[in-house]
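Incident review: delayed structure delivery

Summary: a single-chain prediction request sat in the queue longer than the usual turnaround. Root cause was a stuck worker, restarted by the on-call engineer. No data loss occurred. The affected request and its eventual output are reproduced below so the record is complete for anyone auditing the incident later.

Affected input:
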Amino acid sequence: MKKIGLTIGLLCGMVLCIDAQTTVESIRKEYSEIKSSLAMMMKEDGIPAEYCQLHVAQNLPGTGGHFEDVLFYWGDNDDDEIYPSHYVRYASTKYNYAAREFYEEYMYDQKGNTLFIYARTPDFDFDNGMIYDFRFYLNKGKVINVIVKSSADGGKTFKDVYTGKAVPTQYKQEYERCLDASKRYKTLYNAIDYGTIL
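Output delivered after worker restart:
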């Protein structure tokens, strides 16, 4: 009887691992398709891009100028309207303050769930001058894969630091910051889109 329970448990675990790997592969495929479409849209003779862009510039005491460029790309909801409603499909943000550059990307599904987060930050290990790349893959609000890389040469080359199915303790704060940012950017997009939709 114990063998049957153990066998069922192992099979369930294998199914979950296969499902997570399939989901990661489908996220990577969709990400590549989005990046390819965006590259075509942005060409001089490309089709008009389905995006909106924000540029924020502010001067703060102690750190000086803060500059952020946010690009939102959307998809159309299938609601049989002449002018269908939109959902944020992908967002990227590049920001600079105190002479440090940050870059992040967020990918969403049609329901608004975050699927993928990419973040390049010089702040994670600022004292040692390291730049970190974080990749978080999610499915239904749960992390299914994490990849962390670091660079000691200003971002020219990166080495693998961690790959796994869970967020280790030392990266939890960065993950939570990124997840919170993904929600704030989605909210910002919705505020813009609902305020300007036909």
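Verification: The first strand starts at residue 51 and ends at 60.
Action items: add queue-age alerting; document worker restart procedure.
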